[in-house]
Amino acid sequence: MTKNHLIEKIIDNCKNFPNKKILFDETKSFTYLKLINLAYFNAQNIKKLKSPYVPLIISRNVESVVGILSIVFANKAFCPISESVPKERIKLILKKLNCKKYINCSKKKINLPGEFNIKKNSNEIKVYKKNFFSNPENIFYILFTSGSTGMPKGVKLSFNNILNTLYWSKKYLNWKNHKIGIATQFSFDISMFDLFSGLFFNVPMYIFSNPSNPFITVKEINKNKITSIFSVPAFFSNFVRFSLVNKPIKYLSRIISGGDFFPQKDILSWRRNQKKITIFNVWGPTETSIVNSMYKIRFNDNKNLMKKKSIPVGRSEKKMEIVILDKKKRVKKNSLGEICVVGESVSKGYIGDEKNMKNYFSFKNKPAYLTGDLGYFDKKKMLHIIGRKDNMVKISGYRIDTKEIENLTNEINKINNSIVIAVELYGLKILCLAIETNIKISKNLILNKLKKNLPTYSLPKKLIFYKKFPLNINDKINKKKIEEDILQSEEN
Q1: FRET partner for 320 with CA separation of 20 to 30 A, picked from 305, 347, 382, 464?
Q2: d(CA 369, CA 284)
Q3: How many C-beta atoms lie closer than 10 Å to residue 467's C-beta?
Q4: Per-residue pLDDT for 426 more than 70?
Q5: Which residues, listed in sequence order, are joined to residue 194 by a DSSP beta bridge?
Q6: Dihedral sign, CA of 467, 472, 473, 476?
């Protein structure tokens, strides 16, 4: 059988560094041997489950990692579900997977039948490579993302998908003398990059206890000597909101931001105040293997950041091929189009959702995925993300780019961030502007600024204010909740 180099390398690391502490949370630490031994011990029971997929309810703890590896060593695909997910959604996911059993790695009681617990202690077992010859083309894990219909979509990732990403990332990230701070949920693809980079490249990892609280996080960075963090922009922007970037963050030397747009003024704040910290701007949809492009922000980018211009997210490469296509899926050179990912990083589609596969296709005999993101390559062959196709909305027959309105709003002093949403009210679609700010700002001030730069039809008809935007379980801005708040405010 074909060797699975991802699992082989993890087992090799365990054999070569059995007593190295590789995983920490706020209460526990695991050596390689303890982690792998416990996972292999639990795998013997998980093998008895009939389904090829095993869902697990995860939390911010080492037990969740034990659960993930136990499923992998049982030669099954794991499906991490956040403990914050509503019970009804968990039911939908279990139905999609056709699973009657799930593992609960959280302290939270789920109150659903079929709970299957892992053991927290084990007898010592010798772990041999021959037990882990799972086919690298097999499904490694399934991540559920929200579908446009509200039904969850499960994206299938193979071992080879992730291995390709890890090998590609070596060009950009040197892991020597690093310690990873895991800031995102294990149900979000960024955490998969953290976890398997740590296990594959032999990098210790610490699971932050409460990443939504930047004050606690800074203390944990210093206490645990965290050097590298990969998270969404909202996580790093929080450090700016509370002026935590104004003081030295002792050990941190690298931040990697992806999953959303990192506001230019927040990048500048990090660069001005934390000169020793390298910032990477990265991009990649869930339907591909975590990250597809990576760009180290340089001194020369400051000028564009100050002018509110876009900065690159990286370039197309052999292991991470990216092309820009028109509506007929023809390559567009040096012009704006839809970004398409091609090759080894493209996932195997959605589980049980064959009808929703229109964005998956074959491009020059290679698997390809149309991302829905709009972008272009500049003269240096660097990729720029401009927004999403769904940023374009039609109001009264006019096509409006919501990103343009957001960028103009974000230029106003003391506004931290903004989101434009098209909401249907009284049978009409209207533009609504949600604003995150710590102080009271006049609506007229905002509208006057927009009037100077936008045609009348592009002006938002309703403004709503937040001290802090609601976030979803992946710490991205929760646009659905904002839309609900807008509708609720109209009812009141």
Answers
A1: 305
A2: 11
A3: 10
A4: no
A5: none
A6: negative
